[in-house]
UniProtKB/TrEMBL annotation:
Keywords: DNA replication, DNA-directed DNA polymerase, Nucleotidyltransferase, Transferase. This is DNA-directed DNA polymerase. Belongs to the DNA polymerase HolA subunit family. The keyword Nucleotidyltransferase applies.
Amino acid sequence: MLRTMARSSAPARITIAFGAEGALVDAAVSQTVAAIRGQEPGAQKVTVVASNPDGGALVRDAGAPTLFGDSTILVVTGADSASDEVDEALRELIAMESDTVWLIVTHPGVVKGKNLMDALRKAGAIQINCAALKRGKETLAYLSRAVSSHKRHMAPDALTVLYDAIGQDLRLLTAAVSQLMSDVETDPITADDVRSYFGGVAEVSGFTISDAVWDRRSVDAFRSLRWAMQSSDNVAVATVSALAAGLRSIVRVAGVGAGASEQDVAREAGVPPWKVEMLRRQWAGWSGDQRRLAASAVALADADGALKGGVLEGSSLDPEQKRMALERLIIQASGRGA
């Protein structure tokens, strides 16, 4: 699940989890600790925050030889914020070349702390790259690997439904995959399985409503909206967000041109290839009615402000007014309103 440099089967004495994606950093640390304990079952883990005023002393204490030669896994987090004392203590530790201390250092990949990272690399550190994943294809590939790690399968459109529902938060995506793997017995897991399992999640309902709106299936959109309102208290903002995302995708696909292949459209528009046909169909339904499409975009912007608390002071809506505003938006955006 991690993008790593080539490494031997045995864990390195020094490991750097390098990058700002918290979920990947967490996974890098936990997997490295597990690998070390596979070799040294009794190794004790000590975590030191690099910005801690007492960090230098804590690093030295963790790295000091023990009476019985017990192994220690020292995890130093946020090395970009390391004080001079922590920097010095870490350099002393790597110079010792202790065979009882395993060092794991996390760094968000910024310039600050570069000299310390260079010193660790020079000392033989293995680096695990934990940079933030790009939206779209790269994140979907991560999800697919997460599913494979459970020795299970998900249909491509099911992965996309899950991604649309949860968003770019890898921690939440990873947790959602684990939940699905644990609770859904069918294999492969389908898009309907995902929608059913997360039926009470407002974002999932939002994208179901969005698909119906941009397909100009106003009755289905309205029915889905009413059902969603009965099963969740957080429908309004999530629905507007899903509608806006759907509209952006339609416009991007329309801008690529009808002669391009699905793969080219997917690459240029930043959408999964399987979704191109649906987005082209949606655009075909709107291309002759672009004034109403533009009006829907304006209505979306107005609704976004109104449902989030109002644009002007004193213009916030009560729950019933928000419900009515959302229903009006669905009718107008689906192209069936006045």
